[in-house]
Design goal:
With 212 residues, this protein is mostly beta strands. The chain is 12% helix and 35% strand.
């Protein structure tokens, strides 16, 4: 679990948790920033003061957006950096959930930033897999694929200002050996074929909420 607090004090940590400015990972120390607003432009994520822009022109993870004007759609700043001692990053996704006109919950996953020169398939809407450098037998991998840092400004192409919605970020690493692969290599074990040997660790942020 990670908390974006102004200082390392009890008061500041609890303030951050009340703001829901928090995220979690499956183990790796990935760093993630996530902001939502109406007025971000594509160049904002490349500016040295992008954090100041994120706070001044919108809300951070855990925040609320309300009352979109006609023709408006929310924009999001996302940055992610790899664990300094871990695997490179495969992709950044934004997961959107919303209540449709019948009040039913819907969900869609958007790939918004990724490593390499892959392109989304126009027919399936899917991004190809990043590949794998995992050597299961020796429980090793190489950071020769993926990226150490990913950043983008993304705008919801399917936004309906009349529908309640939420957005959160999911960051995926490139594949690496799972703990079962390390155990098998260290203890010279012959594990069953149905035991997973590869994993892609990830991070999940708190949501940014939209209310009409």
């Amino acid at each position: 679990a990670a908390v974006w607090a102004r200082e390392n004090t009890r008061e500041s940590l609890f303030d951050a948790m009340k703001r829901r400015e928090t995220y979690a990972t499956t183990g790796s120390r990935i760093t993630v920033r996530f902001f939502g607003g109406w007025e971000y432009d594509e160049a904002d994520v490349d500016r040295p003061n992008y954090l100041d822009i994120g706070y001044s022109k919108g809300v951070p993870m855990g925040g609320d957006l309300t009352a979109a004007k006609r023709g408006q759609a929310p924009r999001f700043i996302v940055t992610a950096a790899k664990d300094p001692d871990g695997a490179n990053l495969d992709r950044v996704q934004i997961v959107k959930g919303w209540l449709d006109k019948r009040g039913a919950l819907q969900e869609k996953v958007y790939d918004v930033a990724w490593s390499g020169d892959r392109e989304i398939d126009p027919e399936t809407g899917k991004l190809p897999a990043v590949g794998s450098t995992v050597d299961v037998e020796n429980a090793t991998f190489a950071n020769t694929i993926g990226a150490p840092h990913l950043a983008t400004v993304w705008q919801d192409p399917d936004f309906d200002r009349r529908e309640r919605a939420f957005y959160y970020v999911r960051v995926l690493e490139i594949p690496r050996p799972r703990w079962t692969a390390y155990d098998a290599a260290y203890f010279d074990l012959d594990l069953p074929d149905d035991v997973p040997m590869v994993i892609q660790d990830r991070a999940y942020t708190s949501s940014i909420w939209y209310t009409p």
